[in-house]
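Recall that a protein's primary structure is simply its ordered list of amino acids. Everything else, from secondary elements to tertiary packing, is in principle encoded there. The following example makes that idea concrete.
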Amino acid sequence: MELATLRELFVHELKDLYSAENMIIKALPKMAKAASSEELRSAFEEHLEQTTVHVERLQQIFENLNESPKGKTCKGMEALIEEGKELMEEDANPEVLDAGLIAAAQKVEHYEMAGYGCVRTYAELLGDQQAAAQLQETLDEEGQTDKKLTDLAETINVEANESQEESSEDGEEKAAGKRRRAAKR
C-alpha cells in the first residue's frame, strides 16, 4: 500500500488500532481467567467493556471517513499478546503470575497510548475535530487503565515478592532438614 498522504497514513494507523483492539477483546477474558487477584480480574473485565466501546468509536470514525476498518493485522499487538499467552502457560506462583499479567497488560496499554496519540494528532492536522475528540477520549481511558494497573501493581508486586521470600524460606528449611538428616547418619 502506498502512503502518499497524511490521510492515507491516518487510515492505515486507524486500521492497525482496530485490529489491535479486536485482538485485545479476545485476550482479556483469558487474562481475567488467569488472574488470581479479584481486583486484577475485575480490572481486566472492566477494560474488556471499555475496549468494546473503543472499537465502536473506531467504527464511527471509519464510517465518517467512508473507509473500511478491515484489512490490516497489527503485528505489534500480535506479538504483545503472544508474550502474554506464553506467560499464562508458565508454571508460576499465582501472585507472581498476577504481577506478570500486569506487566503484559501495561505493555499493551503503552502500545495503544502511542498509537492513539499519533492518530489523534493526525486527525487534528487533517481538521477532523470529531475524530480527534473521540481518539482523545479513548487515549484518556487507556491512560486511566494504565494508572489503575500501576496502582494494582503496587500491592500485587509486593505480594509476589513476599511469596518468593516465603518460598525461599521453605526451600532453606527443607535443605537444612536434609543436612540434619544426613549428619545423623
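The first helix runs from residue 6 to 34. Residues 55 and 73 are 15 Å apart (CA to CA).
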